[in-house]
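User: Fold both of these, please.

Assistant: Here is the first one.
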Amino acid sequence: MTRYSFFTAPLLALALTAPGLAQDAAAPTDYPALAGAISSAMRTHHYNPAELESPAYLAVEQAVRELAQTAISDEEFKAGFEAIWDDGPFSHVDLRQEDRDAETITAWIDTLRVGGGGAALSWDGDIAVLTVNTMTGIDTFEQVDAAYDEIAAQQSSALIIDLRTNRGGMFAFKPLVEHVLDAPLDIGVFVSQGWNAGIHRAPGPQDVAGLEPWTGWTIRDFWDSAQSNDLTLARLNPDEPHYAGPVYVLVSERTASAAEIAADALQASGRAILIGHRTAGQMLSQRVYDMPGGFQLYLPIADYYSLASGRIEGVGLTPDMPQDADTALETALGLARR
């Protein structure tokens, strides 16, 4: 299973260059100690203790221990860890060496810019096509907002939102969805270890009723809320300029994580039709922890249940119009031209 992740997927393509935190090249890594620290962190912070007792997870844990006995370099250990987790029992697990510690990474995520290309608006006549490639980056937020300003100014007859290559990231789904909403929408609930340790079922409407929605919208605030509360309710509110025309959302098997939140919320709002292939089904929330040897471990701290669709992890979203993702844009344009 791929390890792209809610709130951190795009970091795989971005260089972290803060000096002074890299491991001393002369100090060899104690790989058995690293494997033990990974297991300990997983059991301390993972969103569902029961999943860590499954045969699938125990087999992965043992494989990492065996890797630690044979690895002779950091590169070999990282590559082996990646190969083991390619078939892991859940998503959002990754091991990196990023030359800065977890605290610095956390602060950095909320301020990063991806350097452009996060979102791009194009036109087919008076039909707007908004391609969103990541949910990360302050500049992506700005590009989404600017796109809706132009869509309003040009009085677009229809809007196509292309999420077919979007692997997730941070909170750019918020403006993407809010500009088409005509009423507040509770989209889903993040489920923490506290809930899963004591209540062995999915949360239902009775559990969400009366919850105060989380409104922090920073990564640190979200991670803290997700771990300190059994349930964290996410709500989106209408934003201006409001787009009231027809909306079509393109998805594929590569649409993952925060992009799946966006697609699900747009579908649940009744404002959009999903077209394409079932999505990846990789929707967990992940936090970063420091490990021995200058490594950072990303592991899932919260599950996500859509109030409309249920659990997305391992399931994905079913489009309203299932088809090959390569033909989804043509289909959407055909519908928009009617």
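And the second sequence with its predicted structure:
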Amino acid sequence: MKIGLVMNTANNQWLIAKSLRQAGVEADLIINAKDFGMALPHWEEADISGLDPYVIDIEEISKYYALPNWVKLWNPKDLHVSPQDVVDLLYMTKEYDLLQLSPPSVIYLQFMRKKFIVHEAGWIRKFSFLDGAAEKLARRGYSKAECVVMTNPDCYNLLRKISYRKETFIPFIVETERYRPTPVERQDDGLVFLHPTRHVWDVKGNQKLISAFGKFIGRGYKAKLLMMDWGTLEDTEKSRSLVRELQVVGNVEWFMPVSKPGLINLYNRSDAVFDQFVLGSYGTTAPEAMACARPVVMYLEQHWNNKCYGEVAPVLNARTVDEILDAMVALTDASLRRKLGEKGRRYVIAHHNPEIVAKQYVQLYREVLG
């Protein structure tokens, strides 16, 4: 069987394609050459920190990482896809037995006489209740897919409200040989908390973390909070204002978006990683941090996580400001940090290891292709 993986939201399909090829499956990846920088394989593989992911030029970053020949570049003429661009994309997908579509390619490719599955990595949160033409096409694409591959447990509440033929849960891939605990030289005074999540308050709950951190410092603890300087302009500025209001400017260190090699270094510099406090499930931040044996504080909803994984990840589960503060205080215990780190790495190896996840995809492909 020959599998074509189309588009590459958050580099999920890149990691899947790599793992499939390591498992002996003929799999190609088609990416949008004009996509957001974090959706390009270079962001996962190359140390290109300091570049703005919103204005990355693929030819420029290809100096840092050369794509393998099984990655195909779809190069629309503009950010707004034209009919000719769609025709070009259709032509690129002709040779495959099965397509695995990462949004928004499902909008364009759902009308082919070819079997396809949808790789759902959180895009359903954006379109499921809107009535524009693109949103209606997205829902239609999900309903026509042979299977919708779910990766976010919280999104099941949305999937139940649209039509689909079949669904299955397959976790994100984390390359546990790359994401691993590594000694990092640091000169930090006190604990280091890392929050690499984008600033979107109603989705991530950044304000809860900052408020809890202000209380933590107010109690006399020594700590530094590392926060990535990206997100919506409004909410990023609101986060900065809250930091000033709580008088913890000297305890907060902002950093520009970093590619994954740089982020691995930051995971290993930190004593604990803080993800999101709203959604109820994780993307890649939490399992990457756990793979580096770092304790994670975040909100995980119990029911869907148990259903998807058979257990809830060994994080400090926190949703409110006071719960986050309690987690910070608990993490002053070095033995607890070490214990959670060890448990987290074992959990990621069990659920997110490339070899394990690739087998789940191969089984699905065989079922779909008969």
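The radius of gyration is 21 Å.
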